[in-house]
């Protein structure tokens, strides 16, 4: 979390400085990490983490890096989405796609596989630039945004905010809607692959 907060300060500093010479158009969307916002709830300020091909609020990022000569492994402890939010920011060739599976669960593909369950929503995730905060969201199936649903082991799993989601407790009313604040991440991919 500290690393993400440090990186979001950069655009603010840059805004106060003379315009830097940039090779990229200013409109290029950034890579980003996500922090949940819902004041007064147990998930307020929780970091969104990738683990087990799904996403969670709290817990920790689950990643893997092969020990192969020539690969310098990044720390792999931070969950970062690639620009636009429909893929992960990873080094593994082929990348990892992000989608919403038919139960409503926000999901990512295994490395070296393009396999996505039939009936999933692909391409419905988006990055919404804003000042001071940008957001990550989902639109599809009558859903708008995300919700966090409690699990048996006291975690919160991330779902598209749809009434007919199949959630761990069996009751969508147990889920907490949240705003997904997108925090700009700069630098090399933070992981080889998420697992
Ligand atoms: C990730 O690991 C690095 C190196 O061990 C550490 O410096 C950094 O604080 C960690 N970041 C997070 C978000 O846990
Ligand atoms: C959930 O509802 C939406 C909107 O009515 C529909 O498009 C979608 O197919 C439904 N999904 C399931 C799994 O029933």
TrEMBL record:
Q: Which InterPro entries match?
A: PhiA_domain (IPR052820)
Q: Where in the sequence is the signal peptide annotated?
A: 1-16
Enumerate the UniProt keywords alphabetically.
Signal
Q: What is this protein called?
A: IgE-binding protein
Q: Which organism is it from?
A: Penicillium angulare
